[in-house]
Amino acid sequence: MVAGLPCLALCLVLTACTGTSGPPAPATSTATAGTRPGTAVAPATAPAPASSPVPAPVPVVQERLELQLSIPWAAVFLPDGTAIISERETALLKAVRDGKATSLGKVPGVAPAGEGGLLGLALSPQFDADRYLYAYLTGREDNRVIRLTVDGNADGSLTLGQLQVVFSGIPKATTHNGGRIRFGPDGFLYVGTGDAQRREQPQDPNALGGKILRLTPDGSPAPGNPFGNAVYSLGHRNVQGLAWDGSGRLWASEFGPDVDDELNLIVPGANYGWPLVTGAPHRADFQDAKVVWPSTRDSSPSGLEISGGHAYLGALRGERLWAVPLQGTDAGDPVAYFTGAYGRIRDVIRTPQGGLWLLTNNENPDFALVLGPLP
Fold first, then answer.
1. What is the pTM of this model?
2. Distance of alpha carbon 27 from alpha carbon 291, whole angstroms
3. Domains: count for the chain
């Protein structure tokens, strides 16, 4: 456990500059050495490739803020611009306002171990009315989704209300706990889970491990789910990022094993192959990834956001921000920023100003980057 590490926030401004082009690396997969036509393959180092139709702007550091966080995992912004951050191992929720972080309290029932603890956060689409903040946490017996209210006080401070369990029974382990949650444009809650080292689960449509789940705000299976239960898609190893493009299509980032980290376009009921295949094997029974990083040393993608026609993915082992141009249902060549400069990037979050926050964890010290505004 790493505690008491100071966390910093760095503000960045985006310019209209782009990098230079670089050659792609050959594609690999646990099932085949080839990739399906139309699948982008990330180069080992990725200055902006010439084939990107809309190059992402280059971020520039503008300001640095000291927040004193410890292993932050996720963040959401309240309507008034206050950021709420989860800390994985302390199980604390922190509020960031005017450049300062204060503790809102410890979430009960969290049993941090390995990659488990207090993980993803999601804000209710009806927050002004119901004040609900949702969280994904690792408990003593399982991973689960809970919600609690964030109430405003007369002095402007915030108070956490009583916890309610929304959904439980997701398998847990020291690794592969998933943890990303997010409300979609349809008003339902999407939950990314990991296989929890139980390889029989991802291919079982009745199991919760290795899935993207789709729930009502109260935790019931959402109407229209493809299997008549909570499961929305299957065959995942460890889903870490969820985001929707401007046309309402869901994309997800996913850890590979030693090879084939993925950016996937999520189709309801589709099978993404784990543990039978990874990457883009071009097999009729499985959905190919849209981007494949052949070596996990370059990525281990976690948090995901989509803005201005690009998917932005934080890389843990790869210690960089990946920008991927999206072209309808296809993805272009990835571009890397900040390679090795800021350490492991855990989450990517859109700010109220139209920029991005990047949260790191397991660094010394931890810090956040703020990019903005994006086009």
1. 0.89
2. 10
3. 1
